[in-house]
Design a protein that fits this description.
8-stranded mixed beta sheet, Alpha-Beta Plaits, single chain, disordered N terminus, 415 residues, globular, Aminopeptidase, alpha/beta, 4-stranded antiparallel beta sheet
Length: 415
């Protein structure tokens, strides 16, 4: 009993230290009712002072932003002065994150082996699961070491087939966890793997003419950092100058790199990097996707949050020439989810329904890698930010699979 009490106190101590920088931070829901108010929010977001989790383009749609204690008075004054409606949905982010970690620790201890959708898995366990599947299903599963992160972690993809050994089959690519704090994204990628491999009989039609290549965690260093040090970390972990660390991987791809919606300030969450593909992780993704030139027909990158199915372009309000085809696929996913669970997903181009973001992986996949269907799936939030309780994992990822499967079926029928 004394040992248990000691471990509990130790965990509480460590949690407090980990989240000390978030103590007193609040999360606001802010709703602009006119164009002027929307422009004010966009300027606040561009300042880099506030952490906007969500900033939709449409009026009367709520934005969500985290504000540090030292900036809360000024933020409140701007909103009040301009009659912008708001409410505080989280009075202290550190407390909710500590609760999340406590729940996570309890569930992790209860699950000693294998993968689970009742807790958020750590990176080493995710890689171990991939290797376990390759050992159990050698005819249908291949794990490939594709490179090392800045901190030396091994990035691996899993290629899933029906075992027919046909060369040069068409490919669907899925990645998750480009942004470190979006824990539900790797969980959803793992669920895709689980369904295609361990529930093969129910999903074999998805593998008849296509192989699937899945990269569950595209930013391992950042992902682990959110588990050990700073839950709200977004970027990679390579030093970026001015005593700052990390680059936003989803602003680092070399297609219209460094344009709208990407910061040139190393400390900003949306820092684009000193050059395109400056990060080992984005270089690795680039190299792997280019190897699939001509074979890859569907690029899907999973993020959180906001219930969106987004497609290029992120660098301009203009649309790609094949927008009708991409939109058709995205709407198939949204319709399937709506019919199955009632959850609504907004469909549209990144810039027109959410915000400008140049240097994204989805833009590059379409614009350079030549993958005709390129979609970003933004999963639901859970809680007030990127801190969903473990109880949300299974319903969120199983719901996401409904949409992913429907989109894949539409791609397979078209290409």
């Amino acid at each position: 009993m004394e040992v248990k009490i000691f471990l509990s106190l130790l965990a509480s101590c460590c949690l407090a230290v980990v989240n000390a920088e978030l103590e007193g931070s609040k999360i606001f829901d802010v709703t602009p009712s006119n164009v002027f108010q929307q422009q004010i929010l966009e300027k606040l977001a561009q300042s880099g002072i506030y952490d906007f989790f969500l900033l939709p383009r449409a009026l009367n749609i709520t934005s969500r932003v985290m504000v540090n204690p030292k900036d809360q008075l000024d933020f409140d004054r701007v909103l009040t002065k301009n009659s912008i409606n708001f409410k505080i949905v989280n009075e202290d982010v550190s407390k909710s994150i500590n609760l999340e970690r406590s729940q996570q620790n309890i569930m992790s201890r209860a699950i000693n082996r294998g993968i689970s959708f009742r807790s958020f898995e750590r990176f080493e366990k995710i890689n171990a699961y991939l290797e376990e599947l390759a050992a159990r299903f050698p005819d249908r599963v291949k794990v490939t070491l594709i490179g090392k992160t800045y901190e030396g972690r091994l990035m691996k993809t899993i290629t899933i087939s029906n075992g027919d050994k046909r060369a040069n089959k068409k490919v669907i690519w899925v990645d998750g966890g480009i942004h470190a704090r979006e824990w539900i994204a790797p969980a959803a990628a793992l669920y895709v793997i689980n369904q295609l491999v361990e529930n093969f009989a129910a999903n074999k039609d998805l593998l008849a003419t296509y192989d699937w290549v899945v990269l569950p965690v595209a930013n391992p260093d950042g992902y682990e950092y959110t588990h050990t040090t700073s839950r709200m970390w977004r970027k990679t972990r390579k030093p970026s100058g001015n005593s700052c660390y990390g680059t936003d991987p989803n602003r680092n791809f070399g297609f219209h790199w460094g344009e709208l919606g990407a910061s040139n300030l190393p400390c900003d969450d949306t820092f684009r990097g000193p050059t395109a593909f400056s990060e080992p992780e984005t270089q690795i993704m680039r190299n792997e996707l280019l190897k699939l030139n001509g074979r890859a027909k569907f690029y899907l990158t999973i993020h959180a949050y906001g219930n969106y199915l987004l497609y290029p372009w992120g660098w301009t309000s203009g649309l790609p020439s094949n927008v009708a085809d991409i939109d058709e696929v995205a709407r198939a996913g949204a319709k399937a989810i709506k019919m199955a669970t009632g959850t609504r997903y907004t469909v549209g181009s990144s810039t027109n329904v959410l915000y400008e973001a140049s240097g994204g992986s989805d833009d590059w996949a379409l614009g350079v890698a030549g993958i005709p269907i390129s979609i970003t799936m933004e999963l639901p939030a859970g809680g007030s930010g990127f801190n969903p309780s473990p109880q949300y994992i299974d319903p969120f990822v199983s719901e996401a699979w409904i949409g992913i499967k429907a989109m894949a079926q539409r791609v397979i029928s078209k290409y």
